[in-house]
Amino acid sequence: MAANISAEQFIGMSGSGYSIGLAIASYEWMSALTLIIVGKYFLPVFISKGIYTIPEFVEQRFNKNLKTILAVFWIGLYVFVNLTSVLYLGGLALQTILGIPLIYSILGLALFALVYSIYGGLSAVVWTDVIQVFFLIVGGLITTVIAVLYIGGADGLLGGLSRMAAAAPDHFTMILNQDNPQFMNLPGIAVLIGGLWVANLYYWGFNQYIIQRTLAANLLVKPRKVLFLQHF
Questions:
Q1: What is the pLDDT of residues 17-42, one digit of tens each?
Q2: What are 190-222's pLDDT values in tens digits?
Q3: ∠ CA(143), CA(144), CA(150), 5° rounding?
Q4: DSSP secondary structure string, 139-187?
Q5: pTM across the whole model
Q6: What is the DSSP code string of 96-138?
Q7: Burial class (CB in 10 A: 0-12, 13-18, 19+), 20
């Protein structure tokens, strides 16, 4: 979860929540179910194989050519989609809050991440995740409470929630109907039983920068545990 939470959630999903409503949370609450599946069925296989990267598993399972294709694809995806969006959104936040020009905000974030990642390695990345997730969750809760209290005014927190529900009742629907303008972006029940499972299983089970924390962990297992994992 620490690896997952970033500017994508605080800015990107907040924007989606503003335009779509609480239904966008389907990506996150379904991840809880996905993580159970990943932990129960996928990770034992990965651990028993002694792998450190998903392309390495693909090489063992299929061949080296497919491993290379997958590795190149994921590097491109991470550099041109994940990394650029996170840096842009983080830079946008710094520009909006602190007034730092966008280009300097982006360069500063990239330089800071580069320095502690190179000198500290994966251990530094993991510990940074552990520390920052506390502040991100607490900060997110505080920001939410302040915003709802502002909307509620003299009526407080419950008054703010009531006013929001009255002003935008369709935004409190978790499964969108076909007449909803945002239905094409989040197509109702089809999301819950269809494509979102594919996206979640990929993201939580096979996305290297998410699952590498587990694959690179110093796992100590008893011999009988190893036999049990090899059974799968």
A1: 888 888 888 888 888 888 899 888 88
A2: 777 777 888 888 888 888 777 877 777 654 444
A3: 90
A4: HHHHHHHHHHHHHHGGGHHHHHHHHHHHH-GGGG-SS--TTSTTTTTS-
A5: 0.69
A6: HHH---HHHHHHHHHHHHHHHHHHHHHHHHHHHHHHHHHHHHH
A7: buried
